[in-house]
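Students often ask why we bother encoding 3D structure as a string. The short answer is that it lets us treat folding as translation between two languages. Here is a chain of 294 residues written in the first language.
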Amino acid sequence: MEATKIARSADEGSGADEIRVHLRRMWGSVAAGWEEHATWVDARGSVVAEKMLDLADPQPGDRVLELACGAGGVGLAAAERVAPDGEVVLSDVAPEMTSIASARADALGLTNVSSRELDIERIDEPDASYDVVLCREGLMLVPEPARAAGEIRRVLRPGGRLALAVWGPRARNPWLGVVFDSVSAQLGVPMPPPGIPGPFSLEDADRLTSLLSTAGLANVEVRELPTPYHASTVEEWWARTAALAGPLAQRLAALPQQAREAVLASARVAISRYATPAGLEIPGVSLVAAATRD
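And here it is in the second language, the structure alphabet:
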């Protein structure tokens, strides 16, 4: 299993570079799920995206970079704000993801959008080349987020603005925490495995603030934003979460059928506390950060 290889690489001290290679392959391998659920991802993340855009305030003529773009929802929304003379670059470490984002831009007729394969920890762009950098749910998934924060500052122009989002505390995001707990109980190992940057690695607002400030960014503000999860059925929640959650998706796919059914049964019991007549209403919270480059 790919996730097991990553954990073994970390345990054996083979270095962050090998982990990055595995992570790139892993996210590429789940790109089909992101393509299938892209519209839903945009709808679920619309409140976060709108807050990010309000904080970064992209203006007509600005040059915008979206990092770890996935299906590109935030960057696509920014493209309308910077038109007609501004530019948006959609980027991701996995070329399979940028292909999806690029195709979506084409389908929308956005002529001011391009895509690039970029590593958030090693952004292959010139210094001071962007007015705005956006990153929704990407910084938490890299081996060295401090290095990534420094790279973000480097590519921002003086006066440039950053807006990013990460998931808040695991205990307050049971829509995903429940799945991790169920898989961990079935396998007898932590989920995500050791060595893999997990979605809650930056769940602490003070740590995120310190990370960005230490990178040399100014006017850092981090705020909580409620991001509840609605699903009509347990099966809908399970299918979407399993398809989108990177190492989790790979681990589930590799399980024998009986083990997958046991995981789902355990998760069903745990998530049932959030059942309502209208379906599942599961709590969630994001941390949204804004900063500038002096």
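Translate back mentally: Confidence is low (pLDDT under 50) at residues 1-14. Keep this in mind for the problem set.
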